[in-house]
Amino acid sequence: MPERCTPNLSAALPGAPRHGRRAALLALLLLLLPALSQGQEPDASLQLCRKLQQQIERLDDRRQHGASASQMDRWKRQRRELKDRFNALRCRHWGNQLR
């Protein structure tokens, strides 16, 4: 019966780490991560992202013109909520198309 040959990474490559499997899996993961992230589509449509961006800009304009302190706080809170939603939906992936 022939003997099974199990390759030993550290014997084959003197500079390789002792834990060859772990290193190989880590290397594979590092190689695949950029490919996986490039294939992802934005979570939100361009129209929804534009709408959110316009609402944020409108609140910025209102705050620049000023109002009472309580109104300014409301607008600031609304803007923060819109911006959080904009970021959660990954609208930045649309980039220059939002302009």
Architecture overview:
The protein has 99 residues and is mainly α. The chain folds into 2 domains: 9-38, no CATH class; 46-98. Helix content is 64%, strand content 0%. The protein is built from 4 helices and no strands. It has helices at residues 9-12, 20-38, 46-65, 69-88. Helix 3 (46-65) runs antiparallel to helix 4. The longest helix has 20 residues, at 46-65. It starts with 8 loop residues before the first helix and ends in an 11-residue tail after the last helix. The model has no long low-confidence stretch (mean pLDDT 78).
Overall average residue pLDDT? 78
**Could you tell me the radius of gyration in angstroms?**
26 Å
Terminal Cα span = 71 Å
Shape designation = elongated
Tell me about the biggest sheet? none
State the helicity in percent bands: 55-70%
Succession of helices and strands = HHHH
Structural key phrases:
elongated
